[in-house]
Design a protein that fits this description.
The protein is built from eight helices and no strands. By secondary structure, it is mostly helical. The protein folds into two domains: 1-97, no CATH class; 128-252, no CATH class. The termini are far apart. It binds zinc ion (ZN). Zinc ion binds at residues 41, 43-44, 46, 66, 68-69, 71.
């Protein structure tokens, strides 16, 4: 029963914070303050009433249209809210309502924002990476989980590894294989993972990105593909199951 209540709380909080994630995704790349003004329609700029700000439900009751100008609201908004809620539920299922669980939820939302801005705007904002990295390092001072030194080393290894990839890509393929945003995102994630698990995260991201990229190229004949979503997936997998993945891999 108790775990049912916890799951419900994780879902509801996940929806509310997912709504805030939408604010971050829209505002950080546009350099708009995340505190003021309050939420507004991106088309007509009309401020939203409390009834129009309920995660997912408002989108459904409004029929996916702005109540002020009637323009279509992107389905991205309820999708981000749902994905964040399900992510938080997933983190809760693995970690429980513990300190690493709460940190994992915040990491999940940060990665979701990074993946979404990379998909929609083609950038991973510096401020987001900086904020995440500082939070990850600060969390390591809590006496369960990573030590601060491991956290710092994770950031250095994560950033350094992608820097090497980026330089190799430029040398071998004569093009930008990886953006600076990817590098900063993996450095920030390394602060949550430590040096071992950040390697696991990078490995998962590169393999998943390469497989998907090969299929994507076959189907669409297009070259570029944002790497941020794969990094986000790799980091989350490493955070939740990295030790098990590492043990399995070393056993092979
Ligand atoms: Zn509007």
């Amino acid at each position: 029963m108790a775990s049912f209540v916890y799951a419900f709380v994780a879902l509801v909080l996940g929806l509310v914070v997912g709504s805030f994630a939408n604010v971050l995704i829209y505002r950080i790349p546009r350099r708009i303050s995340i505190l003021r003004p309050g939420s507004f329609c991106p088309d007509c700029k009309a401020p939203l009433t409390a009834n129009e700000k309920i995660p997912v439900l408002s989108y459904l009751t409004l029929g996916g249209k702005c109540a002020h100008c009637g323009k279509r609201i992107s389905p991205r908004y309820p999708i981000i809210e749902l994905v964040n809620a399900l992510g938080w539920l997933g983190v809760f299922a693995v970690e429980g309502f513990t300190f690493p669980g709460v940190v994992g939820c915040i990491l999940f939302t940060g990665l979701l924002v990074a993946a979404a801005t990379d998909l929609t705007e083609g950038v991973i904002p510096n401020k987001l990476c900086l904020g995440l990295g500082i939070f990850g390092l600060a969390a390591s001072f809590y006496p369960f989980g990573l030590e601060p030194l491991e956290s710092l080393l994770g950031a250095l290894v994560g950033g350094g590894l992608l820097l090497i990839f980026a330089l190799l890509g430029r040398l071998v393929f004569k093009r930008e294989a990886m953006g600076g945003g990817d590098l900063k995102l993996l450095a920030a994630s390394g602060a949550f993972l430590g040096w071992k698990l950040v390697l696991v995260a990078a490995f998962i991201a590169v393999v998943a990105g390469a497989l998907y990229g090969a299929v994507y190229k076959l189907v669409t004949k297009k070259e570029t593909l944002p790497f941020g979503p794969f990094l986000a997936a790799g980091v989350m997998a490493a955070y939740l199951a990295g030790d098990a993945i590492l043990a399995w891999y070393l056993f092979l």
